[in-house]
Amino acid sequence: MAAARKALSRRSVRVAARLSLILLLAAGLAALTLVAAPARAEDDGGPVTALVGSARASLPGFAPDLVAPVGEETRGNDHGRDWQHCVQVVANLRARRPKVPLVVLLGGSAARECTVLDEDWERQIKRRSGYVVDVYNLGSKHRTYAQDLAFVKLLPANVPTIVYIGVNLGRFCLPAGSASITLPRPRPLTYYPQHVYSSKRVQSYSTKRYYVSYWLTARYPEFRANFSAELGMLQKIIRACKRRHLRVALVDLPRDLPVIGSSFDAPVSRYHAGCASLARTWDIPWLHFNAAAHFRDRDFFDIFHLVEPGRAKYQSILSDKTIRLLKQYRMPKPTPTPSPSPSPSPSASPSVSPSASPSPAPAL
Would you say residue 36 lies in a domain? Predict the structure, then answer.
């Protein structure tokens, strides 16, 4: 009997120890989630409602043991400054059509964060190729393909245009729907702080790995459920661009490969195959250069949003791709100003008619 009591006591101690360990691990995960949880990535998605980008306390279908990451991208209940900037740019372009080729990038918050600034992008293209273009990053948080389609239909007609459609995992997680866009009156653009994220504050490696696990558990089922319909919506965007004589290209948006590793290979391979198929069918470019950018973990705020060092890497490659397309599609390039004729050599003795007046000096 004493031996039995001792064995029972030992088992009780072991059970208590295990329970304590489980509670400690649960508390640690909760602290990680609440204190350092990353922002929802890319268009990460909430339901298609009038309040695009509104925060949700709970998410249908999400595993109960994982807490949804919370960050800047889920705050607020309206489209935000990035959306207001996008609709104002399009309204202005329609009111006053560009006299040079137009380049626009459509997508969600990952697209918004992947370039430095529009002016910097324009200067980079001009410096490397001589092309003068109007460039606009028209990315905004929680953007759907249906909204991209609405933007394409509103772009100005009869302007040589390249439309980049940014694609990534999050953009295939929402149910396909329709969207309409109401443009404001044309007016000068106000100051637009394009970037939400900065290298001054990036998520830790452990937090990013938590987000990878969260995405696979909570978001991957949404991806599988909605992928085919969203790929069909992507095809509608391509068709609309073709009908409007806009040059369109699909471009893979950034993701933190050093952290993600092979965790997303299955869903990434699926949407890459879908984009490659659309590119072949419609004879359009499919640009994917995440590996070529040689991103480091510190280039990202979380697993989808770039910060300063990464933006420069991504924009540089995108500029080179843009230059190639400008040349391929023979878009107009500024005619070089002819150089002034050289002055006569001092030893030359040109005959001058007495009635001739001296030629004016060339304007410099």
Answer: yes
